[in-house]
Specification:
Layout: H1 17-25, H2 27-32, E1 36-42, E2 49-56, E3 63-70, H3 79-94, E4 99-105, H4 109-117, E5 121-132, E6 135-145
Parallel strand pairs: 3-4
Antiparallel strand pairs: 1-2, 2-3, 4-6, 5-6
Length: 147
């Protein structure tokens, strides 16, 4: 599942087992402290891992950021869209967020299509905003407010 990590803002690439263990280590503590919520995206029947989805929690500002990745061989099946819709329900109904925002690399338009399909609106593009793999990337930011 290395391919999709090239398109993630927070996960290192290449991604080692130690990186994965370090990332997983704090999930439960962060969930219990209402800092962030990390979930596996799996097949409903077999439990096969397709990817992961996360929602941060900025309690001070009553919003959070959506982030996800899907293993390359599972792209195009709607898994990110379905998981993100569940996260929005959790954010707005359970946690009473005012808004959820998401960011994606301009070089990854498929992620932008997923976000727009979910109703997020383009807020802005930050030119050469982040450095990934020794090159600068434009960062697109979208948001969705409670209805």
């Amino acid at each position: 599942m290395v391919g999709p990590l090239k398109n993630t803002l927070y996960q290192p690439y290449p991604y080692s087992i130690d990186d994965a263990l370090s990332w997983i280590e704090h999930h439960l503590d962060n969930f219990n402290a209402n800092k962030s919520y990390e979930f596996a995206i799996t097949d409903k029947e077999s439990g096969e891992l397709y990817g992961a989805i996360a929602l941060s929690n900025s309690q001070k500002f009553n919003h959070g950021e959506l982030a996800y990745w899907i293993g390359e061989k599972f792209w195009g099946n709607g898994y990110a869209t379905e998981a993100a819709q569940a996260i929005f329900n959790f954010a707005f109904e359970e946690k009473q967020y005012h808004k959820v925002f998401a960011r994606y690399f301009n070089s990854n338009p498929a992620s932008g299509r997923v976000m727009r399909k979910l109703g997020l609106k383009k807020e802005r593009i930050l030119i050469d905003h982040v450095r990934k793999e020794n090159r600068f990337e434009d960062l697109c930011i979208l948001e969705l407010f409670t209805q």
